[in-house]
Coproporphyrinogen III oxidase (Hymenobacter montanus), 442 residues
Amino acid sequence: MNIAIIGGGISGLTLAWYLQQAGVAYDLFEASSRPGGNLHSWPTPEGYLLETGPNSLQLSVELEELLAELGLTDQIEDTAAVSQHRFVLRGGRYRQLPGSPPALLSNGFFSVRAKWHLLRELRRPAGPPDVNETVAHFFRRRFGPEIVDYAVNPFTAGIYAGDPEKLLLHKTFPQLVALEQQYGSVLRGLAKTGKGALRRRIVSLKQGVQTITDTLAAKLSHYHPSTAVTGVARRPDGTYQLQLAPATNSAAYTHLALALPAYGAAPLLAPLFPQAARALAAVHYPPMSVVFSAYDRAAVAHALNGFGALHPKVEQPYAAGSIWTSAIYPGRVPKGQVLFTTFVGGAQYEEAAHQPEDAQKAAVHAELSRFYGIVGEPRWQGRYVWPRSIPQFDTAIVGAHVAAKTLEADNIVAVANWRAGVSVPDCVRYARQVANALAAGQ
């Protein structure tokens, strides 16, 4: 067995690491000189440590074990205690979102009518399974429209860059489907399973999340940076040969592992598997800009006593929301300053994502000033653009997942976030699972 891994993001690197541990031959090809893909930490000359992708990570069992294997346990950095507080824009001001199902009833964030919908959910029977049900439809059906507008909508925009009216429930939150079918009430299921009681530890790495992918790349014996795969051919014996740039001789590979975005994998597959390629090309990746804004602490009236604030679409905001970077990681900004990481774009705000840099920065500053009581201009602003950000688990993803399953018969496996789930823990878990399966079959 000899495996070609195409793509050096967290999924491809993790797959290579566990194949290497199992003694399976592989080559990992990454077109960029930098490993990590969406994990990108950006230290600036002005003294800021920025994250252009994931700002923090849920510490799953698999991720914690990987960090230990890489010798990075002592580099884990917990978020500040205030990070447990999450805020949502409502009525033009930020209000703290209840953090648990019981708090939903005691907190004043939701109306009496919304709380009545929550209580009724406990006695509402399970609906028939529906693979076409969207996230918004599910929550509206079980919890009422206010929960969708002021909890589900901002959450999916902020975490998934998505639109809950389009995201499929069984692809985005399969655990909720299972809870409803098993327990009838989702809230009762959360209570019985304990899944609603505990939050995973939220962490980063002291020098940024890119430390993980940098360390993985450095420990791999067959990692090839700055080497793009421009084509895939199949030999008469069924093995695969790659066209590489810069041009080098390619080995024959029994298996291909696609650790690429769906839009990157599609053209490679098109000559051999045109139907699968079309399915992958249809996956939607909305544009996203990340705008960083720093101010003197004295210029900001808000207490910034939380992880950040999300913006419901119903409030007609400019941005999807902001992480209060200086509140959760105080050491990442110069003393006496605060830093906002603001997300412009995503599936619900695509028009704003296409605006010029100066226009985006000005609009973000204006919105921050209005909601946070900021006086004066920013000390510093920066921007990072993802022309294609997070894959959307809408109707198009179904065809891509079917295609991925079909390709396995031809010894092609997909391990990217469009296959595994968009979070870093999901990618690590799935890549490790695939590596174990491949090693078992050698």
